[in-house]
Amino acid sequence: MSQLNGGLVDFSQSSLYFSALAIAFNPTFWNIIARQEYHNKTLTRLFNGNSLRACYALALTIFGLGLFRDALYERALRHQPFIPAFHHPYIAYVLLTIGNTLVLTSYYALGLTGTFLGDYFGILMDEPVTGFPFNVTSAPMYWGSTTSFLGTSLLYGRPAGALLTIQVFVVYLAALQFEDPFTSKIYAKRDKEEKEEKKAK
Ligand SMILES: *[C@@H]1O[C@H](CO)[C@@H](O)[C@H](O)[C@H]1NC(C)=O
Ligand SMILES: *[C@@H]1O[C@H](CO)[C@@H](O)[C@H](O)[C@H]1NC(C)=O
């Protein structure tokens, strides 16, 4: 065991890989489902044409997967070597407060359908949200979550958590490259249609 050799991360723990798998799986899952919905109304069909109900179902699923991922992360941390030099509860609380504030205020600003991919269901927001926390960062949900992952690793004193946090960061960065242009396209299409409607009147 690398732990006994003074290693910072114990790579022999399968819980580490389960956690990494969940971190990679979640955004992949919701992007595949959301694009299916956008192109073919797959979820809306499943809910007899009720887009709102379909979006709520996806929201609940994504939320549940998020809780599961967090549980796997904490379990992975408990299986890892405790490194006193990496144990910083006060910094951890600051990071957790910042992270959770960003996540919770962006839920509040976007609402349920805005948070959980409503635009892919044709449930669009009237105007882009520009107030806090979106005036601090363009993706407060993702960067808040990443900050909380880092905070948790410092709370537990497990460097393995920092490694998984880097993975979270990379996964969200990749997700944004994929999601942002698509969302912009959805809204550009709506704006164009609205303009044409006005012209027709
Ligand atoms: C969309 O879904 C319908 C019904 O399930 C199916 O017949 C059709 O082939 C699908 N189209 C695409 C592009 O996936
Ligand atoms: C962001 O907006 C809030 C109000 O919604 C404001 O109080 C805050 O100062 C703004 N922050 C920045 C960095 O602009």
Low-confidence stretches: none
The hetero molecules present are: 2-acetamido-2-deoxy-beta-D-glucopyranose
Strand content: under 5%
Compute the gyration radius: what is it?
20 Å
Overview of the structural elements:
This protein is elongated. The N and C termini lie far apart (73 Å). The chain has one domain (3-196). With 201 residues, the chain is an all-alpha fold. The mean pLDDT is 93. It has helices at 14-40, 42-46, 51-78, 89-115, 140-156, 159-200. One 2-acetamido-2-deoxy-beta-D-glucopyranose binds next to loops. One 2-acetamido-2-deoxy-beta-D-glucopyranose binds at residues 131-132, 135-136. This is Phosphatidyl-N-methylethanolamine N-methyltransferase. It is an enzyme of class 2 (transferase). Residues 14-34 dip into the membrane without crossing it.
Helices and strands in order, then pairings?
Elements: H1 14-40, H2 42-46, H3 51-78, H4 89-115, H5 140-156, H6 159-200
Helix pairs in contact: 1-3, 1-6, 4-5, 5-6
Subcellular location: Endoplasmic reticulum membrane; Mitochondrion membrane
Enzyme class: transferase
Transmembrane segments: 51-69, 90-110, 155-175
Task: Give a brief rundown of this model.
By secondary structure, the chain is an all-alpha fold. The protein has helices at residues 14-40, 42-46, 51-78, 89-115, 140-156, 159-200.
